[in-house]
Amino acid sequence: MRLRVLALDLDGTIAENGVVAAETWKVLQQAKAAGMALLLVTGRTLDSFASGGPFAEVFEAIIAEDGAVVYFPRNDSVMLPFGRVSPEVRKRLEALDVPLERGSAIDSTRVPHDERVLQVLRETGGGATVEYNKGAVMVLPPGATKGTGLHVALQELGYSARSVLACGDAENDRSLFEIAELAVAVANTTPEMKLVADAVLPHADGEGVRTLVSDLLSGRIPPRNPRPERRLFLGHKADLTPVRLDAFSLIQGNLGIIGSSATGKSWLAGLLAEELLKLGYQICIIDPEGDYRGLRAFAHALVLGGPNTRLPPVVDVSTLNEYTNVSLILDLSGHALDERTTYVADLLHALVGLRRRRSRPHWLLIDEIQSFCPRTGGPLTEFIVEQMREGGFGVVGYRPSQVAPSVLQAIDQWIFTRMRIREEQEILQHYLPQCCPPGTIGLSNLATLPLGQALLCAAEHADNDHPVASQVAFEPTQRLAPHVRHLHKYLRAPLPESKRFYFHIEGSYSGARSAASLWEFREALSDLPIRTLRYHLDRADFERWIREVLHFQELARRLRKLSRRPLEGEELREALVATVGNRYEELESLI
User: Fold this and answer.
1) Residue 526 CA to its chain's centroid (Å)
2) Does residue 229 sit in helix, strand or coil?
3) Terminal C-alpha separation, the chain
4) Which of 536, 537, 522, 527 is nearest to 570 (CA)?
5) pLDDT tens, 361-388?
6) All domains of the chain, ordered by start, with CATH?
7) At CA 265, angle to CA 335 and CA 389, rounded to 5?
8) What is the pTM of this model?
9) d(CA 204, CA 220)
10) Are 152 and 144 in contact (CB under 8 A)?
């Protein structure tokens, strides 16, 4: 169960006419007993809840006063993360002849008195914000919303917003819906909130919540409409139509990336990792060959291990996953297969409890899956398959015939790259999801699939009974972080003669006349004749070679920009040397 945190509104959601029914309390207790974390997010003032009452018993946190007050019953502590409404504003509000309720951090009244409240805020220059809730007018300290209050509670409790299902009914639940992984509205919600919810329940208030929680405990998720901003951008089809994959479906299921060697499998896996990182998911990558080190370019990604280093202690990896939002790339390169296998087994066993308690990390990617789950199986294979039943795995491999059948059976979403061997294609056909029946995705075409293209076969589960098939060939988009295998290849390793850069030189010259790598290219710039530099820069030769042969798109962009500047002589040389040298150092630091 990935959605282990339930953030529930009170009035109009779990409560009907201000009262929570006994059967609703019973279902909430069942959810808590099953290991779910319950958080109450309400517009009521904190003093509405007795410290020893049923709310304090069931909920790990009470986010009251529209997010301005966060109460933790376990240690009886209160936070006002956004302060209070400014004294000047409160003084002016009290002077108004309107009904006013004061909370620990907020003040509230009702429509139609909002116009007078807004006039006070205009006259005082702010110091507060206004939120509406079905006729209630909440005057809040700046920054306070249900969403931001929930964010504070999640940080304090060690949960991630990517593990939250939020349920509400009114306008002030909008920020709650925005932060949650899945936003669900009860049937009695407003028309406007139905438009921003991922799912709308068929029943109102308490009955709707009881049905929702019971379904979750049975492993069922309500039918939903995936949010456009929560879809992973993979690339384009031949007609330039964008190809996207629903992040929710990816994390709920298991993805397999399969293809022959050197066809871009790890590159595609890295692309998916980047897209997940941008959306705030925590990932953990088991990287046997050091292919994912470039992901450390992301602020919240950390590479551990690597050649000539000791593998990080499993307890440290588990601690980082639990108490930080950092994603980890575990570089196992330089270590023997037996050592890798033992380490991965210990690591995955350590993460079981964490995934059950916190749903962290959200996605586990295992490259070279055939090394850890060979066709002959074994204890590690059995354990991984057992964990894949909960979803949240990605695996990368190049020979399906060498992977344990039980692992292939657990995969429900696929990305294929070129695969020439017919027997391997035939093996795959047995494990495709029902939405991709034999003959519908043209596995025989994998032998002729161009390098740099991929084939997606995924079942996006908008609801539990009607998966939506997605079968499409696409060209992957550019990645933000360079692929490390690519860096090793082109920074210093010499290219074949047909792909080297050959300088146009007139007259006598004793220096380098070609460059076989970016390092040689950088070194040559300091010595080449100025007229040679100008010749190639004006013809865009440098930019073209960097982009089409070395595939360093950012450096090509910088060279194109440089070519437009009115530089001559040594000033031109200095600018070229600096541009190429600076980017070279940036790329080298990623290895």
Assistant:
1) 43
2) helix
3) 36
4) 527
5) 999 999 999 999 999 999 999 999 999 9
6) 1-76+145-225 (3.40.50.1000), 83-142 (3.90.1070), 228-480 (3.40.50.300), 485-588 (no CATH)
7) 80
8) 0.81
9) 19
10) no
